[in-house]
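Troubleshooting log. The previous structure file for this entry was overwritten by mistake, so regenerating from the original sequence record. Sequence copied from the archived sheet and checked twice against the printout by T.R.
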Amino acid sequence: MSRLRHRLEWFLFRLARGTLRALPHSTARPLGGSLGTLAWLSSPSYRKIVDRNLRRAFPAWPKRRRRRISRACFRHFGSMVFDLVSFGRFDAVDLCRRLSLQGWENMDRAEEDGGGILYLSAHLGNWEIAAHVLGLYRGPVHLVARPFNNPLIWEPMLRERERFGQRVLDKKGAARGVFRVLRNEGRVGIVMDQRVRPGQGGVRVPFFGHQALTTLLPAKAALRTGATGVPVFAYPRPGGRYRMEIHPPIRIRRRDDETENDAVLRWTRRVLGVFESEIRRHPEQWLWMHRRWRLD
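Regenerated output below.
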């Protein structure tokens, strides 16, 4: 049964990919946005999750504003999916032509002391494009990711990542690979804004003023290997373009009066603070559909 479902999903994926690539790239985002609006209209349960999360993060917002951001959020993720599928027609040169970079000097600063680099991002903007850029300019980059349930779709997606200098570390049991790469002064990319269950290493850390289960793996890896964290984000721009933003490096240093766990928590709170600031700038581009503040 699963094999039949995988084949059906693969057929629909190829159909959507072929259709999008037969059209101008400029049509991908509007079409995806329309699909996102349809998903918003037909998903009352997810609308409730989004509204609950927005009320928690922005308690002063009126209902009308929450509703507007909720709808825009669905539109954004619909447009992002179509944008990525359509983007597969491009090569590295095409990406460079569509790209503007902000804060690239922070990348050079992060590499001044040597050691590994941890690229830190969130489900905000277009993190897949951010990975393409990092792999292209600073590859190879090892990304922590969970393989798709459907191997027929995962394989071409994996080849697409490899085409832009990315390597994948399976999210399940990723710690060993992360430490290995960083100890060899390599580069690792982690999207670390989602909820992590307590049994999987999730620890309560404040996020938008509320406790949220968060992974401490990046902080522990940075402390024990001497790696430097660099927050990175990519945002869609008009005309099928992208803006890549690189923030100042975040180095972890254990103070004389604190334990290792204290240093790890302090560094993690600092990273989440950067994420929170970016989400406040672009609230419609974050994954509010996720039960981020669930504590069990």
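The chain is about 50% helix and 20% strand. Archived copy saved in two places this time.
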